[in-house]
Amino acid sequence: MHNVLAASNHVEPEEVGRRNKTKQICCSRLHARFQHVHRQQAVGAKPFFCFEHPASAHSWKRAAVQEIMNHPDVTCTSFDQCRTGLTCPETGRPIKKRTTLMSNAPGVPLQFRPLQCHCSVPHVRIQGSSCGVRLSTYCQIYTPELCDHLAAACERTLHS
Ligand SMILES: [Zn+2]
């Protein structure tokens, strides 16, 4: 076990670094896309937002969040991150991490509603560490596939 972790530790920072860089690139792409949306809607502007949290998070029960959630323009869409390429760095098995997006952007439910788990293999639970990294921390980093879905949601919102 020690050898596996030691060997994996050598690779893991590169993988986290790669995914962090991808997230930064995608975030700047998303930011640019949303700036474009804002320019498009300069007259009678309606800024879009998207709030992401685990589906089981306590924040969904907070009054301030529920107030936004109950707005007629806002939808909550839950999806499974095993459908966006989230896997255990050690075993490659899928990690479900059911996640909810709260947004007033119409492209978000269109893009994410279909992403429901249909795995035929068991999921890895988000507990403890894998390859020397806490799995809960590892799973906070968006996969490139998740970034692509977010960018697609922006595109669909722009053209809706
Ligand atoms: Zn799954």
Would you kindly provide a written description of the structure presented here, covering whatever features stand out?
- The chain has 160 residues and is α+β, with helices and mostly antiparallel strands.
- The protein has one domain.
- It has five helices and five strands.
- The strands form two sheets. A three-stranded antiparallel beta sheet has the order 1-3-2. Strands 4-5 form a two-stranded antiparallel sheet.
- Helix 1 (2-40) packs parallel to helix 5.
- The radius of gyration is 17 Å and the shape is globular.
- The N and C termini lie far apart (52 Å).
- The structure holds zinc ion (ZN).
- The site of zinc ion has 7 residues, from loops.
Percent strand equals: 5-15%
Structural class: alpha+beta
- Main sheet, how many strands, which sense, barrel? 3 strands, antiparallel
Terminal-residue CA separation:
52 Å
Question: What small molecules does the structure contain?
Answer: zinc ion
Shape: globular
How large is the count of helical segments? Answer: 5
What's the average pLDDT? 81
List the helices and strands in order. Answer: HEHEEHEEHH
Helical residue percent?
40-55%
The tally of beta strands, per DSSP, is: 5
Note the topology.
Layout: H1 2-40, E1 50-54, H2 63-69, E2 75-80, E3 98-103, H3 107-112, E4 129-130, E5 133-134, H4 135-138, H5 144-158
Antiparallel strand pairs: 1-3, 2-3, 4-5
Helix pairs in contact: 1-5
How would you summarize what this structure contains?
The protein contains five helices and five strands, in the order αβαββαββαα.
Please supply descriptive tags for the structure shown above.
three-stranded antiparallel β-sheet; 160 residues; single chain; alpha+beta; 5 helices; binds zinc ion; 44% helix; disordered N terminus
